[in-house]
Amino acid sequence: MKNTLAVVVLCLPLAASAQIEKGRSFLSGSFNFSESGSKNKNLNVDAKTFQLNTSVSYAYLFAHRRAVGVTPSFQLQKYNVYGDNHVRKFGVGPFVRRYFSVNEKLLFHLDAGMNAIFGQSWIVNGGDKSPKTTGTDLNFYFAPGASYFVTEKIALVATLERIEYASSKTKDSEWRTWNFDANFGLSSITFGAAFYF
Question: How far apart are CA 166 and CA 144, in angstroms?
Answer without folding.
Answer: 18
